[in-house]
């Protein structure tokens, strides 16, 4: 995971798993994993120097050949955009329908609304549903807070590869099947 995603998952108020979003319980250090990292050898892709995995991060920060190797990869990937992103709707960040604060991920929007708008009875359009192909951008939920709690406690794409052309019932069925398999 990248640092911003991990920091979001480890909020002091309620740390959660980066994959399933279940609450984390206090644990202990994975000493066996630390030992494996300290004793496993690898080779720098830039300068071909051999070292232990535990030293790789500090080496990569100072190895110009490794940094050039990474930049060549970045250039190769970003040389030509694969698609025009303006043709794709944003299904990752959402505005608050009450106060229009922007750029919430799904979990952030749920938390924001619970904290700041739990007593607001105004009927609003769910921005998450409105962004989906099956969503009605004009439908105003009679009880938006209940809707958030029931429909948006987790993100579909956490559990399935999202096919936004499938209808919502098919997506929900996939999620339920996957959750039963994972038990």
TrEMBL record:
One of its GO terms (biological process) is protein polyubiquitination. Residues 44-63 form the C2HC RNF-type domain. GO terms for molecular function: ligase activity; ubiquitin protein ligase activity. Coiled coil: none annotated. InterPro entries: Di19_Zn-bd, RNF_E3_ubiq-protein_ligase, ZF_C2HC_RNF, Znf_RING/FYVE/PHD. Its EC number is 2.3.2.27. Pathway: Protein modification; protein ubiquitination. This is RING-type E3 ubiquitin transferase. The lineage of its organism: Eukaryota, Metazoa, Chordata, Craniata, Vertebrata. The gene is Rnf114.
């Amino acid at each position: 995971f990248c640092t911003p995603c991990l920091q979001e998952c480890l909020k002091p108020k309620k740390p959660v798993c980066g994959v399933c979003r279940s609450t984390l319980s206090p644990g202990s250090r994975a000493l066996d994993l630390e030992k494996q990292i300290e004793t496993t050898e690898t080779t720098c892709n830039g300068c071909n120097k051999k070292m232990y995995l535990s030293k790789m991060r500090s080496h990569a920060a100072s190895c110009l050949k490794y940094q050039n190797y990474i930049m060549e990869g970045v250039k190769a990937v970003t040389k030509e955009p694969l698609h025009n992103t303006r043709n794709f709707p944003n299904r990752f960040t959402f505005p608050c329908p009450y106060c229009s604060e922007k750029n919430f991920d799904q979990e952030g929007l749920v938390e924001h609304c619970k904290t700041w708008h739990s007593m607001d009875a105004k009927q609003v359009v769910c921005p998450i549903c409105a962004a989906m192909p099956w969503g009605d951008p004009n439908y105003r939920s009679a009880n938006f807070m209940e809707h958030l709690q029931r429909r948006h406690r987790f993100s579909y794409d956490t559990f399935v590869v999202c096919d936004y052309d499938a209808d919502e019932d098919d997506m929900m069925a996939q999620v339920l099947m996957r959750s039963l398999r994972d038990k």
